[in-house]
Amino acid sequence: MPCALGQSRVTVPQPHPSTSGVPTGQIEPPRSLWHLSSMIPVNWAPKIEPGQAGTWSLTLFTGDAFDYSIPFRDYLDRILARLGEPAALRLPPWQEGEDFIEGTLVWRGRDIHVYFEHSLAYLDFSSPDRTAIEDLFAHIRPELAWTALPPLALIPRSPASATSRATLPKPREILF
Question: What domains sit in the chain, N to C, each tagged with a CATH number?
């Protein structure tokens, strides 16, 4: 049945039990973005950088600051599924309004520190072992989709008229 913007309603699978109360009936995203709905959106291309106290860090900025609807635990479940066995994730129990959460990802015999916060909308993995972070990034890269648009100043105007309004390009996926 058609609804707003000519989209149709679809039923999507129930979320993983680690998330809270997302309705099962949602408006289907436009076809050009359909593949992104099963990926982890990132606003900036991830980089491996030196962290604190001699560690290496991979940071994924996944949304807007103070957006408490970002499903970090779902993202971690997807990452865990991507890593396969043996991989384990230790996090504190979920709490309403949680923020500044620390845990540990155990993968290939290595402990990788996990941290996420809604205040700045990022998920961070760190370890003193740079190779562990590089391997992790190599394995989770297929789950990531860059969803950022360029700043308006960088969007070319239509050549038809100097006074025409700039049109926004479609979000694009960048292969990291």
Answer: 32-149 (3.30.1360)
